[in-house]
Amino acid sequence: MSSTLQSRRLDTRRLSPCCGLWLVWKAHNKMVFHGLHLSTRDVARLIAEHVELWSFRARSRLDVETF
């Protein structure tokens, strides 16, 4: 397994709880402020999608080349 894939897998494990809590909070706000109800399945699907997106984020601002 490549080191990039392995480090991405570790990032995903570390991001999952944070992403899960964030999306549960957002679903709660949608319910309270907009009257929209998301099912558990919808929230779980969103968590999976967001964890994948977050795993491809830039590591830090120091990784970006300055102009």
From TrEMBL:
Top-rank taxon, per record: Eukaryota
Protein name, as recorded: Uncharacterized protein
